[in-house]
Amino acid sequence: MEREELISRLTESREETLRCFIMDEAQLELSLSPDKWTVKEILIHLADAESVLLERIKRIIAEPKQVLWAFDQDQWAKNLEYESYPLQLAANQYKACRDVSIYLCNKYFDQYGNKEFVHSATGLRTLREEMIKIAEHNLNHLAQIRQILK
Predict the structure, then answer these.
(1) pLDDT tens-digit profile of 71-80?
(2) CB within 10 Å: which end of the chain, N or C, has fewer?
């Protein structure tokens, strides 16, 4: 994936995701099944994942050859009580992190894309791969939300 395509995906998914944050309460409480996350919980997860991924790309740019740790999304959802977490805080967090990620991807994708780091669960990766992961992760969850809303 080239930088321009990545920036386009990040921008378009940001706009679609931000529209999800303002859905009505009934839509936000929907899920695929009782044991799956609700739309609201997915959105809060996206906000937290954006902050984790942003922190990772900043570390890779600023301090190469990092070992970066995976995070347990289910523990975050449980221990941060996503079901009662303020959605507007998550929306603000998501937008701020995504805006910074777009800036950093635009500025450093080509220049530092080959910088390597070690992910605790997936092994050796590059900054380019992690930047692309931001878009892909978001797009996967948007597809999930669309499926829930059908």
Answers:
(1) 999 999 999 9
(2) C
How many whole angstroms from its chain centre is CA 18? 12
pLDDT of residue 65: 83
Phi/psi for 123 (5° steps) reads: 85, -150
Residue 106: φ, ψ to 5°: -65, -40
Q: Which of 75, 69, 68 is nearest to 45 (CA)?
A: 75
Residue type, position 5, single letter: E
Q: CA angle 51-4-124, nearest 5°?
A: 55
Tell me the residue length of the chain.
150
Residues 39 and 95: their CA atoms lie apart, in Å, by: 17
Q: In what order do the strands lie in the sheet with 123-126?
A: 67-68, 116-119, 123-126
Q: Is the dihedral of CA 46, 81, 51, 60 positive or negative?
A: negative
pTM of the model: 0.95
Would you list the DSSP string of 17-75? HHHHTTS-HHHHT-BSSTTS-BHHHHHHHHHHHHHHHHHHHHHHHHS-S-EE----HHH
> Are the C-beta atoms of residues 133 and 53 closer than 8 Å to each other?
yes
